[in-house]
Amino acid sequence: MSLWNTIIVALIALKRNPTRALLTTLGIMIGIAAVITMMEIGRGSSNSIRNSIEKMGANSVMIMPGWVRVGGVSQGASSRVSLLPADAEAIGRECPSVAYYSPLVRANGNQVIFGASNWVPNRIIGVSPDYLKITNWVVDEGRCFNERELEHRASVCLVGATVVRELFDGMSPIDCEIRIRNTTFRVIGVLKSKGSSMNGNDEDDTIIAPWTTVRMRLTGLRSGTATSTTSTAASRPGELYPGTGVALYPEQDSTLASDKLLVPRFTYIDQIVFSAVSPEKVQQAVREAALVLRERHNLKPDEDDDFRIFNSAEFMAMLSSTSTIMTNLLLIVALISLIVGGVGIMNIMLVSVTERTREIGLRMAVGARSSDILKQFLVEAIVLCLVGGIIGIIMGHGAALMVETYLKWPIESSPGAVAAAFGVSVAVGIVFGFYPAYKASKLDPIDALRYE
Amino acid sequence: MALIELENITKTYFLGEIDVPVLKGITLNIGQGEYVALMGASGSGKSTLMNILGCLDRPTDGNYLFEGEELGRASGDRRAMIRNQKIGFVFQSFNLLARTSALENVIMPLAYTAGKLSHAERRRRGEAALEQVGLADRMHHHPSQLSGGQQQRVAIARALINHPPVLFADEPTGNLDTKTSFEVMEMFSNLNAAGITVILVTHSDEIASYAKRQIRVKDGLVIDDGGAK
Lengths: 452, 229
Hints:
The structure holds two protein chains of two kinds.
Chain A: H1 3-15, H2 18-55, E1 60-65, E2 69-70, E3 73-74, H3 85-94, E4 98-106, E5 112-114, E6 117-119, E7 123-127, H4 131-134, E8 139-142, H5 147-151, E9 156-159, H6 161-168, E10 177-180, E11 183-191, E12 206-210, H7 211-219, H8 237-240, H9 254-260, E13 271-276, H10 282-296, E14 307-311, H11 313-355, H12 357-365, H13 370-407, H14 415-441, H15 445-450
Parallel strand pairs in A: 7-12, 9-11
Antiparallel strand pairs in A: 1-13, 1-14, 2-3, 4-7, 4-13, 5-6, 5-10, 8-11, 9-12, 10-11
Helix pairs in contact in A: 1-13, 2-11, 2-13, 2-14, 3-10, 11-13, 11-14, 13-14
Chain B: E1 4-15, E2 18-30, E3 35-39, H1 46-53, E4 61-66, E5 69-70, H2 76-85, E6 87-90, H3 102-107, H4 119-132, H5 148-160, E7 166-170, H6 178-193, E8 197-202, H7 205-208, E9 213-218, E10 221-225
Parallel strand pairs in B: 3-8, 3-9, 6-7, 7-8
Antiparallel strand pairs in B: 1-2, 1-4, 4-5, 9-10
Helix pairs in contact in B: 4-5, 5-6
C-alpha cells in the first residue's frame, strides 16, 4: 500500500468521526499553538530589547588608559596617561569595523554658574561631534558644535535636560552664557532627555563641549594623575601645613620616572569612544582597535596593553539571555502540554483500535499484512497530529497577532518555529501512535473477525 | 494436481494446562472448479478447518498445499498475499466497513495488492464487480442504507475483486431470510459455473444441497465425503 493511499485511508477513517478526531487532536492543537505564540512573542521581545540596548549605545566601546605602578603600588585604573587624540584618529582611519570615534576628556566636579544659580553636573565632558552618533544622542533644541568649532576650541556647549531644569529653571538656555571655572561657555543646544543609564546615573545631568575646549581651557591636564600640575593640589588639606603630611607612598625617584616614561603632554586624552558598524561587529572592532593601539604605542608582543577596552556587549548578552531564558521556560511548559496532548492521542488511538478490531480482522482477511495495519494506524495518528499541528500553527500565529494588536507587545513570526512545530507534531504522532498501531498489527485475524 | 491438498491436518488449542484438539487429522483434496459444502454441528471443527483452508489460521501439524505450495508454514506476508490474490472471503455478518460506500468497500482489498493500480482503474474494477452482483445502482450507498441481501452481495463483490480462484463462504446465509438466501446461493452457483471454486461452511442441509460435494465434519474428523473422487 503506497504512502499516499495510506494517508487517504487515514483521512477517510478520521472523517468517519470528525468530532472525535477534532477533540483528540485538541491537545496537540493547543500545545502547538502555545509553542508558536511563545516563540513569536519571545523573539519579538528579545528583538525589542536588543533594539533598545542599541539605542542606549550598546555597540559603543570605551578605551581607557591602563594603570601604572609607582614603586610597586598600583595607582588604580586609568592612572597612566597613554592615549593621544591621534590614537583616536588612527582607530577611526585604520579599523574597518569602527563607524564613529571620538576622544573624550572629563572635567567632572566643576561648578557651573548661570546668573544667580549654580549646579555641579554629574558629567562635564569634552568630545567631538561624532560622540552624539556613538551614543545615539539627539539634540532636542539648537544644534551640535561642528568640526570648525572643535578645531578653534570654541567656547560652546550642549546641556542635558537636568542641567536645564536646575540652572535655567525651565527657560530655553539657547545662547545663554554659563561659566565653568574661568571660562564662559555659550549654550548652543539642548540634549534630548535620555533618562538614567544602565547603571543608574542620570544621563541628562551632562554638559558636552568640544574636547579641545575642555582640554585647553578647562582642565589643562587631568587632575589626579601622578603628573598633575593643576594648582588645586596646593589647597589639599594635607599640604596646608607643610611637613605635617605623612608620606603615604614612597617618592618616585628619577630612575622609576624615566623607566615609566610618564611624560606629561598637553594633549593627552582621558578616553577614546567609538562605535562599531553593527552590534555583531563589536568584538571585531575591539580587536582591530587593540591592534592599532598596540602598534602605535610600540608595545612588544610580550608586553601588556597600556590601555583597557570596555564594551557593553556582556550587558547586552545578559539582557537578551534573560529573555531567552523566559522564552525557553515557556517553551518547556508548551512542550509538556504537547506530551499531554500526545497521551490523549495514544488513548484515543487505543480506543479506536479496539473499536475497529473487526475492521482490522477484515483487512487482514482480504490480504493486509501486519506491516500494512501498523502503517495504517501509525499514519492515522500522524495525520491526526499534523492536522492538529497545522490548526495549532494558525491559532498560535493568530494569538500572537492578537497580542500584538491589543497588548502592543512586539512579535516576530519565525519560520523556524513553524518548521519545528511540523516536526514536533509528526514526532508526537509517531511516538504516541506507535504502541496502538503495534497492538493493532499483532491482532489475530480470526479473533479480530469474531470480535463483538 | 488438486487445487487444495490437506494431508493429515491437526489443530490443537493449548488453553493453559488442557489441550483441546479440534482437528484430529484431516486429509482432503479439493480440485479446481469444485463446489464444496463443509458441514457439521457447532464445535465439530468445520470453522477451524475453513480458517486453515483460508490461510487465516495455521495447522498445528500436517501439510497444506495450495496450488502445490506449502502454506501452513509460509511467512505471514506470503499468506497475506495469498489471501489477497487467491482467496475471496464471504462472512456470515458481511463485515462491511460502516460509513463507507459500497464501492469503497469493494475496492478495499486492492489497497493491499502489490501491483500498482491507478485510482481510476480501481474504481473501474469495483464498478464492474458491483455490476456483476447486480448492485450497479447502489454503488454510493453506505451499508446501513442496504438490505441484508444487498450487503452480502457487496461482500461477494469485494471477495471477487481480485479474481481469486477460490471463494470461501462462512455461513453466508446465516443472517438472511429464505428468499435472499436463495438469491445469494444462486449467485454462488453461477460463480461456480463460471469456474470459481466455491467452499461453503454451513450447518444447514438445505444450503449444503446447492453444493455438488458435501463434506461432513464431526469431532475433528471427516466422517462423510459425499463427492470424493
